[in-house]
Amino acid sequence: MLPIPALCWLCRLPLQIASHGLCSRCVQQIPRLPELCPCCGLPASGTQPCGRCLRRPQPWQTLSCVSDYLPPLSDWVQQLKFSRVTALRVMLARLILLKLLTMRRDYRLPRVDLVLSVPLHRRRAWQRGYNQAALLAKPLARWLGCEYREGIKRIRHGAVQHSLSASARKKNLRGAFRLEIPVRGRHILLIDDVVTTGSTVAEISRILLAQGAASVHIGCLCRTL
User: Fold this and answer.
1) Of 110, 113, 119, 117, which Cα lies nearest the Cα of 96?
2) 150: which DSSP letter?
3) Rounded CA gap, 136 and 96, in Å?
4) Positive or negative torsion for Cα 162, 163, 165, 168
5) pLDDT tens-digit readout, 37-66
6) CA–CA dist 93, 154 (Å, integer)
7) Which of 14, 126, 187, 218 has the greatest number of beta carbons closer than 10 A?
8) Which residues in the chain show pLDDT less than 50?
9) Which residues contact 19 (CB under 8 A, 6 or more apart)?
10) Which pLDDT score, from 0 to 100, does residue 17 have?
11) What is the model's pLDDT at position 93?
12) How far apart are CA 10 and CA 7, in angstroms?
């Protein structure tokens, strides 16, 4: 029997390399980003940290994103999170990898030796059946040749973040996470699907750096610009 060819997730034409998930033409159709600050990931000019980050430094070192929260990325994120289309995970993780490799080349970032994912509370993870950030982080760790650990635990449920204002998000996250593995001296890549205000990754980054992490780098699919 002949194998069924893998199809591009966007144009639905057969792929030459099945694991890529997107053909090279459709990769070019992902909305292009404006020039971004390498630290906060928000629009800025130049390759140095923007004025916002100079006035109020972020609690992480760099942030890399694939696109703004726009189709088709936003559609795929919704399918991955809420429609159980977990087959998207490898294609989406590869898009994050391509951005990470570009940033590592352009900014001479240190080699990552530990990949972590933003956790869900056990109740939400049980309802969904999986943590979408972990689905993205696991293949990334394999491709980067480093360790993946589920080393962060969400110990307080709290309200859903996207329903809150920026100030309420920060309050909602206080004391919400606990680090359960040693991280001293390690260069860490923290993965989430979407970064909006940055409150979640900021809270986790503070915990990691307080416990001696050498650096924290954020990787995500979408950064709300």
Assistant:
1) 117
2) -
3) 9
4) negative
5) 999 999 998 788 999 999 999 999 999 999
6) 23
7) 218
8) 1-2
9) 6, 90, 94
10) 85
11) 96
12) 8
